[in-house]
Amino acid sequence: MMVGPVPDTDGVEVGVTAEEEFSAVFERHYRDVERYLHRRAADVSVHDLAAEVFLVAWRRWERMPPDKTLPWLYAVAGNVLANEIRGRQRQRRLTDRVAALSPPPVETDHAEEISERAAVAAAFDRLGEPDREVLRLVVWERLKTADAARVLGCSIPAFAMRLARARRRLRAALEPSPSPPTATRIRAVPSTTGEAS
């Protein structure tokens, strides 16, 4: 598409296409737009915002006043930057609201949990194989009593009895073993009754 003559202030030749005209404006003012954005908000991605400014400029190319290109680009940059700042503020407010609704993180010491698991595993290993299999079917495989009895080929009451015994043995294996009694030394005391040997 051919456009009308462009003023000499932007250094664009007369009778060029809109794409050529836009390219010339881009080449001439991209760094100016970047500096404009950076001076106002150094913590934003200036390259991304500058690209967005020129995207808006391309979409609204017909509305751009040919004799005031740079001021028009600055106005677009100001709007793009304002949108970015508003978006960040909305995101910050949303993050704050979610954080206020969320329970505070609990830092737990997993050493106790690991120690308990190790104790259960050791107690489980000390059980006989029939007790371990009964517990595996109920706890690991999550079978109901009737299904677990079917797996072992026994009646439901027989399985229930085996399960009760296995649980009791596991609890007993988890109980801390009583410390062995301390041996006391008995000293032989010489007799003082005056007996002669």
From TrEMBL:
One of its GO terms (cellular component) is DNA-directed RNA polymerase complex. Residues 119-170 form the RNA polymerase sigma factor 70 region 4 type domain. Residues 174-197 are annotated as: Disordered. GO terms for molecular function: DNA binding; sigma factor activity. Residues 26-90 form the RNA polymerase sigma-70 region domain. One of its GO terms (biological process) is DNA-templated transcription initiation. The keyword Transferase does not apply. Keywords: DNA-directed RNA polymerase, Sigma factor, Transcription, Transcription regulation. Pfam families: Sigma70_r2, Sigma70_r4_2. InterPro entries: RNA_pol_sigma-70-like, RNA_pol_sigma-70_dom, RNA_pol_sigma70_r2, RNA_pol_sigma70_r4_t2, RNA_pol_sigma_r2, RNA_pol_sigma_r3/r4-like, WH-like_DNA-bd_sf. Belongs to the sigma-70 factor family. ECF subfamily. This is DNA-directed RNA polymerase sigma-70 factor. It comes from Dactylosporangium siamense.
